[in-house]
Design brief:
The complex is a heterodimer.
Chain A (H helix, E strand, L loop, with lengths): L5 H4 L10 H11 L10 H4 L3 H5 L8 H11 L5 H10 L1 H10 L23 H5 L5 H4 L1 H6 L2 H13 L3 H11 L12 H14 L4 H10 L1 H6 L13 H8 L25 H10 L3 E2 L28 E2 L9 E2 L5 E2 L5 H14 L3 H13 L6 H13 L13 H10 L1 H4 L11 E2 L2 H11 L3 E2 L2 H10 L35 H15 L19 E2 L3 H4 L5 H13 L5 H12 L3 H4 L3 H15 L1 H4 E2 L1
Chain B lengths: L2 H7 L21 E9 L8 E3 L3 H9 L18 E3 L4 E3 L7 H5 L3 E8 L7 H7 L15 H10 L14 H8 L3 E4 L15 E2 L21 H13 L7 H25 L10 H7 L2 E3 L5 E3 L4 H14 L1 H4 L3 E9 L7 H25 L6 E7 L19 E6 L7 E4 L27 E2 H12 L3 H7 L17
Parallel strand pairs in B: 1-10, 1-11, 5-13, 5-14, 6-7, 6-10
Antiparallel strand pairs in B: 2-4, 3-4, 5-12, 8-9, 11-12
Classes of the chains: A mainly alpha, B alpha/beta.
C-alpha cells in the first residue's frame, strides 16, 4: 500500500495540510481506504458505519453506565440513556463514525520565523508590562492553550470515545511541553491522536516518527549519521511498540522470565536507521541566514512532517528486529518503512497495544485471556464487524476492549484487582459532566492537574505519568494510575470534592481575564433538586452517575443520613441545594467513584 | 475564589499545637539518611573529573563536552572547581559543595551501579544474552528498569519478595525507621510492611482538604457529613485497589494530625524554629558567572527544605531513625547537555550546600547523611547532538558530618573506549559505558550500617551482598 502520508510529507508548499479535500482525494486515490492520509473517519473505519446503522440491542442501565465510564469522559443521564437504547456494540460503532473534535489554532508559528538574534519573539511582539507579554510564554510556547480545549471538548464533545482513545494513546506515545516549546506544534501533535484514534497503528507510528515535535522531544530531528544519539530509537522500541521483554500473545512473559527483546547494539542499529531527518520547511532563524542551518538542517518548525535529507542518512547495512534488515544504499523514507515493518511484524506489538488500551479504558489488571483476545483483534484488524481488516487496526482493537465480556459482564466487577483508579484529568471531567458544568476548561488545566500528578500534555518525561506495570506497595495486582496516588494527591482529590460541593461558590470559577475567550466554570444542580425531598432517590441518582450503582448499603445509608439531617429548619430556603451538595460530596468521596469498575 | 484559596481555606477548623514545630537540640541517638535521586541518568563523568594524567585522556574522548579549567560565562563546562589536594575537580555548578569536601564532609564514590555479582568485561560478554538476572542486571540502559534497580538494591525481578520493594522500605521493615518522600511514589520507599509517607512541598495546608472532617461537631448536618466522609474512608471490600486507597486516606489523616504545621511552614512564615533553615535556603549562591539563585528557588531545594524542617522537628515527627527521599529529574541529556546539565547541577550543588549548612547550624551535621543515586551514568563519548547516551557505572556524592570526606572511594574506570571497563560489544558500540566495580548493594549497605542496621539486617536487605568482597566501602564513620 502506498504510504499516504507521503502526500503530506513531500509537498513543498509547506504547512500541515494541503487542504482537506485535496488531501482526502490523494488518500483515497492512492489506497483503497483503511488508515491513511487526512484521517477522516470514513476512510479509516470501514465496518463501523455499517454496524452503527444496525438494529438497536438495548442493554441494562448499569451496563450503560459502566460503558459510559469506560468510553467517555464521564457519564451523564443523556449518555447513559443513549447507550442503554442502542446497546454497547451499536453505540461503540456509532462513536467511531463521529468526526473528530478539532483543537483550534494555538499560539502562532511566527515564533519559529523570528530572526531577531537580540530579542525573543515575546519581547519583539508584545509590549513590556502588558498582559500579552506576561502570558506570552503560556499562550505561544506551552501546551496550556491546547489543554484548555482538551478539557472543554471533553465536557461537551460528541466524539467521547475518540477523545478517550486519543488521550490514552497520548499517554504512552509521549511528547511533552516540558521539553518542546511551541503551542502551534503541540496542538498538531495532540490532534494527531484524535485523527488516528480509529485508524491503523502503523500510520499513527509513522506520524509519530515523522513529527517534528517528537523529533525534538527525543532528539531524532537532525540526528546525523556519524554518531547518532540513541534516545528516540530506544524509546520507540521500549515505550511505543514492543517493550523490553519478549511477550506471548496474551501479554505474559515468554518463558516466564524476561527475555530481552533487544540489546544496546540493536538500539544503535535503529538509531542509524532513523537518521537523516530535519525539520519541515516553514521556519526561519537569524542564525541561518542562508535558509539552512549547518548546511543541511532546516530551521526549527513544528508543523507538518519532518523532511528527509538522504545525504545525511546512514549508508551501512543495518540489522533490525523481526528478520528485517536494511541494505547499505537506501533513503530515509525506505529505512523508516522498514523500521515500521519490523515493529508491526513483531509478536510483542499486539499484546503491547492491547494491554495499554485495556488499562486506559477498562481495567489495569486484565486477565491473560482478555489481553489475548484484544491482541487478536489488533492482528486481524477486525472485531464484531468493525475494522478494516489490516493488522494494527485500532477501531477493531478498541471495539474488542469495550465489547469483551471482561468489560461488559458485571460478574467481573469483583475480580481481584479489577478496575482502574480514575486518573486526575478524568476525575475533573467526570465530576463536571455529572454536574452539568459549563466550562472554558481554563481552571483545571492551568494549575490544578499538576497538584494531583497529572498535568495534561505536560508529562514529566517520555515515561508518562505512571508505568503500565505499577503495583501498589504490598499488592499483587497491577494498578497503573496508583503510581501517582499517594497521601498527598489523595488529599487533593478529596479537596476537589470539598471545593465542588461544600465550600462552593457561584460561579465555581470566574472567567480568567488573561484568556481571550474565558468564561469560567459554572455547575448546575437543577437536575437533582427535584429528588432532594427523597433522600434515597437522590442518593441513587448520584450512585448511578458516579459509580454505576456500586455503592454499598452501608455507604448509601451514610449518605441518606447526612442528607436527611438537612432541612428547611437547618438550611432555610436553600435546603434542597444543600441536600444535593451533601449527597454529591459524599458520593464523590466514595472509593467507588475513584476506583472505576 | 481561585485554586490556591481553596487549598488554604480549611475553614479554620484545625489549630495544631505550635509545639509540633519546636526545633530540638540534637538528639544524640538520632540519625537520618537523605536519598537524592537524580532521574534520567546523571552524567557522572562531568560531575567529578580526575585532574591527574587521566584528565587529558578524559578531554580527548569527551571532546566538546569536556569540562575545562577555563571559565565560560555560563559556567556550563568551566571553570572546574579544584578539590582539596588538586587530584580531583567538580563541575563548576557544584562549587558550593567544594568547602564540604575540603572540611572532610563530602566524598564521592566512583563507578558504582547495579550488579548481580562482580562482573568483568569477559563476564559481561559471556552473560549478556543469557537473560539471567542472577548474572547480569535486567534491562541495562532502560531508564525505568535501572531506576528500579538502583532503588531496589538487588537485581531481582518484581516477582520475588525482595524484588518488589526498595532498600529504604526494607530498612524500615528491619528497624524502626520513619520513611518520608517529598518526591511522590518511588520504589525506594516501598517495603513489605512499611512504606514511605508522601508529603507535599512548603506552603501546603494538608488539613485544608478535609475541612469537612468534624468528628466532634454537634450540629447534625456537619456531624453527619463528617461521619459519612469517614464511612467513605473505609474500604467497601477487601480488594487491593480499595484497601490501597483506604490506607492512603488513613495515612493522610495521620499526617494532618502529626505533621501539618511542619509541612506548611515556608520562609515567610518566619517560624523561629526554622530560622537557621530559612536562612540557609534563602542564601544566594552563584549559578552562572553573573547569576545567582537561592536553594529555595528550585524544585530540589524546596524538597530539601521540607526534609530539613522534618529533621529539625524530629522529636515531634517521632522516631530516632529517618530516611527521606527527594528527587530531581531532567538528567537524560541526549542532546544539548552543557546547558541542561549545568542548570540541574546548580540545583544539586546549591540545594545540598544549603541543606548541609542548615544541618550544621542546628548541630545535626553529624547526624544526617545525604547521598545521590541515579539511573545510570552516561557514555564518555558524546553523540552528534551535543549530548551523551545511556551507560552504567556512575559517580555518586555523599555529604554529611559522618562521611569520611575529602577523598574518593571505589575504583575509577579506565577511560579507554573498548577498554577493559567498557561494556561494548562491537566497534559500533563502544562509547564508554563502564561496567561498575562497586555495586549498589555495597553502597546501600555502607549507608544503612551507619543508620543502625546490623550485619544480619544488611544481609536480609541486600541478599546479594555476600557476593561482593567489601561489605563496607569505608566512607562512613562509625
Amino acid at each position: 500500500m502506498q504510504r499516504i502520508s507521503g502526500a503530506r510529507g513531500r509537498v513543498t508548499t509547506g504547512g500541515w495540510r494541503l487542504g482537506a479535500s485535496l488531501a482526502l482525494a490523494l488518500a483515497l486515490a492512492a489506497c483503497g481506504g483503511g488508515g491513511g492520509g487526512n484521517a477522516t473517519p470514513a476512510a479509516s473505519t470501514s465496518g463501523a458505519a455499517t454496524v452503527a446503522a444496525g438494529a438497536d440491542a438495548p442493554t441494562t442501565i448499569t451496563d450503560a453506565a459502566r460503558l459510559a465510564q469506560q468510553a467517555s469522559f464521564g457519564p451523564t443521564d443523556a449518555l447513559i440513556a443513549e447507550i442503554q437504547t442502542a446497546g454497547a456494540l451499536k453505540w461503540t460503532a456509532r462513536q467511531m463514525t463521529i468526526a473528530a473534535s478539532t483543537y483550534p489554532a494555538a499560539g502562532t508559528d511566527a515564533i519559529d520565523r523570528w530572526t531577531d538574534k537580540n530579542a525573543s519573539w515575546c519581547e519583539g511582539n508584545t509590549e513590556a508590562g502588558s498582559t500579552a507579554r506576561l502570558y506570552c510564554w503560556r499562550d505561544n510556547y506551552t501546551a496550556t492553550p491546547v489543554v484548555w480545549q482538551f478539557y472543554r471538548q471533553a465536557l461537551g464533545g460528541g466524539d467521547q470515545l475518540r477523545q478517550r482513545v486519543a488521550f490514552a494513546l497520548s499517554q504512552w506515545l509521549v511528547a511533552s511541553d516540558v521539553e518542546v516549546y511551541g503551542s502551534y506544534g503541540l496542538r498538531g501533535w495532540q490532534q494527531m491522536f484524535r485523527d488516528r484514534a480509529f485508524g491503523n497503528y502503523r500510520d499513527l507510528l509513522r506520524d509519530v516518527m515523522l513529527s517534528p515535535v517528537m523529533g525534538e522531544f527525543l532528539n531524532n530531528v537532525n540526528n546525523s549519521k556519524t554518531d547518532p544519539n540513541e534516545n528516540f530509537a530506544r524509546e520507540l522500541l521500549q515505550l511505543f511498540s514492543i517493550g523490553t521483554c519478549e511477550l506471548n500473545h496474551d501479554g505474559s512473559l515468554k518463558g516466564g522470565n524476561c527475555v530481552a527483546t533487544y540489546d544496546n547494539a540493536t538500539v544503535r542499529e535503529y538509531a542509524y536507521a532513523l537518521t537523516g531527518w530535519t525539520y519541515p520547511a516553514g521556519g526561519a532563524s537569524g542564525w541561518c541566514p542562508t535558509g539552512k542551518c549547518d548546511l543541511w538542517k532546516n530551521p526549527r518548525y513544528l508543523a507538518g512532517a519532518m523532511v528527509a535529507v538522504p545525504a545525511q542518512h546512514d549508508q551501512t547495512v543495518r540489522t533490525l528486529l523481526s528478520g528485517v534488515s536494511l541494505p547499505a544504499s537506501r533513503t530515509p523514507d525506505q529505512a523508516l518503512e522498514k523500521v515500521l515493518d519490523s515493529i508491526m511484524a513483531h509478536g510483542n506489538t499486539a499484546p503491547f497495544v492491547a494491554r495499554r488500551l485495556i488499562q486506559h479504558l477498562v481495567t489495569g489488571n486484565p486477565s491473560a485471556a482478555y489481553v489475548a483476545d484484544v491482541a487478536t483483534a489488533f492482528e486481524t484488524g477486525r472485531h464484531a464487524g468493525i475494522g478494516a481488516g489490516t493488522r494494527g487496526d485500532l477501531a477493531a482493537t478498541v471495539a474488542a476492549v469495550l465489547l469483551h465480556a471482561e468489560a461488559r459482564d458485571a460478574s467481573h466487577i469483583t475480580d481481584r484487582g479489577y478496575g482502574r483508579l480514575r486518573e486526575p484529568a478524568q476525575l475533573w471531567t467526570a465530576s463536571m459532566r455529572a454536574l452539568d458544568a459549563v466550562s472554558d476548561g481554563a481552571w483545571w488545566g492551568w494549575s490544578y492537574g499538576d497538584e494531583m500528578g497529572q498535568a495534561v500534555f505536560s508529562a514529566p518525561s517520555v515515561f508518562s505519568y505512571y508505568a503500565p506495570d505499577y503495583k501498589p506497595p504490598g499488592s499483587d495486582v497491577t494498578a497503573p494510575a496508583f503510581g501517582i496516588e499517594n497521601e498527598n494527591t489523595t488529599l487533593n482529590r478529596l479537596a476537589l470534592f470539598q471545593f465542588l460541593n461544600v465550600f462552593t461558590g457561584t460561579p465555581l470559577m470566574v472567567a480568567n481575564t488573561s484568556i481571550a475567550d474565558s468564561f469560567g466554570t459554572t455547575v448546575s444542580r437543577a437536575r437533582f433538586t427535584g429528588a432532594a425531598s427523597d433522600p434515597a432517590a437522590l442518593v441513587d441518582r448520584f450512585d448511578l452517575l458516579l459509580t454505576s450503582r456500586q455503592l454499598t448499603t452501608r455507604q448509601k445509608q451514610a449518605i441518606v443520613d447526612a442528607v436527611s439531617a438537612i432541612s428547611v429548619a437547618t438550611h432555610g430556603a436553600d435546603w434542597q441545594a444543600a441536600r444535593v451538595r451533601a449527597a454529591g460530596y459524599l458520593a464523590m468521596s466514595s472509593p467507588q467513584y475513584s476506583i472505576v469498575r | 475564589m481561585d485554586r490556591r484559596d481553596f487549598l488554604r481555606a480549611g475553614a479554620g477548623v484545625f489549630a495544631l499545637p505550635l509545639a509540633a514545630t519546636a526545633a530540638n537540640a540534637a538528639t544524640s541517638d538520632y540519625r537520618a539518611l537523605v536519598a537524592v535521586m537524580l532521574n534520567g541518568g546523571n552524567d557522572g563523568m562531568n560531575t567529578v573529573v580526575p585532574l591527574d594524567a587521566r584528565f587529558s585522556q578524559y578531554q580527548a574522548v569527551r571532546g566538546a563536552l569536556a569540562l575545562t579549567r577555563a571559565a565560560d560565562a555560563d559556567r556550563a563546562l568551566g571553570p572546574i572547581v579544584t578539590l582539596g589536594g588538586g587530584a580531583w575537580g567538580l563541575h563548576p555548578r557544584l562549587e558550593a559543595l567544594a568547602p564540604f569536601y575540603d572540611d572532610g564532609s563530602l566524598a564521592f564514590l566512583s563507578n558504582v551501579g547495579p550488579l548481580a555479582r562482580p562482573t568483568t568485561l569477559a563476564d559481561y560478554l559471556a552473560w549478556r544474552n543469557l537473560n539471567d538476572a542472577d548474572k547480569l542486571p535486567e534491562a541495562l540502559f532502560s531508564h525505568s528498569d535501572q531506576q528500579k534497580l538502583w532503588q531496589n538494591g538487588v537485581t531481582r525481578t518484581d516477582t520475588s519478595s525482595v524484588g518488589a520493594t526498595g532498600w529504604g522500605g526494607r530498612s524500615a521493615d528491619r528497624i524502626a525507621t520513619g520513611l518520608y518522600s517529598f518526591a511522590g511514589n518511588a520504589r525506594f520507599g516501598v517495603g513489605s510492611t512499611h512504606n514511605a509517607l508522601n508529603l507535599p512541598g512548603p506552603g501546603t495546608n494538608l488539613s485544608a482538604a478535609l475541612g469537612t472532617w468534624q468528628p466532634a461537631a454537634t450540629w447534625a448536618p456537619t456531624r453527619k457529613l463528617s461521619d459519612g466522609l469517614m464511612t467513605m474512608f473505609e474500604a467497601p471490600n477487601a480488594d487491593p485497589l480499595f484497601t490501597t486507597l483506604a490506607r492512603l486516606r488513613a495515612n493522610s489523616l495521620d499526617a494532618i494530625q502529626r505533621l501539618n504545621d511542619i509541612v506548611l511552614a515556608t520562609p515567610t512564615s518566619a517560624n523561629a524554629s526554622y530560622a537557621a533553615i530559612d536562612s540557609a535556603f534563602r542564601t544566594s549562591r552563584r549559578t552562572t558567572a553573573s547569576g545567582t539563585a537561592t536553594a529555595y528557588d528550585s524544585s530540589l531545594g524546596k524538597q530539601l527544605y521540607q526534609v530539613a524542617k522534618m529533621i529539625a522537628s524530629h522529636a515531634a515527627v517521632g522516631g530516632t531513625r529517618h530516611i527521606y527521599f527527594v528527587q530531581l529529574g531532567g538528567f537524560d541529556t541526549h542532546g544539548g547537555q552543557p546547558a541542561q546539565h549545568s542548570a540541574l547541577l546548580s540545583q544539586v550543588g546549591n540545594g545540598l550546600a544549603a541543606f548541609a549548612t542548615a544541618m550544621r547550624t542546628l548541630g545535626l551535621h553529624d547526624a544526617v547523611t545525604s547521598f545521590t543515586l541515579s539511573d545510570f551514568g552516561r557514555t564518555l563519548k558524546p553523540n552528534s547532538s551535543s549530548g551523551t547516551d545511556h551507560a552504567w557505572g556512575n559517580q555518586q556524592l555523599m555529604i554529611g558530618g559522618a562521611v569520611r570526606g575529602a577523598t574518593g572511594y571505589g575504583s575509577y574506570p579506565e577511560l579507554t573506549l573498548g577498554g577493559p571497563d567498557d561494556a561494548g560489544t562491537n566497534a559500533g558500540n563502544r562509547q564508554g559505558r563502564w561496567i561498575p566495580t562497586t555495586s549498589v548493594d555495597q553502597y546501600g549497605a555502607t549507608l544503612l550500617r551507619w543508620l543502625g542496621l546490623s550485619e544480619a539486617d544488611l544481609d536480609a536487605v541486600f541478599p546479594n551482598l555476600a557476593r561482593f568482597a567489601a561489605r563496607d566501602l569505608g566512607f562512613m564513620k562509625a
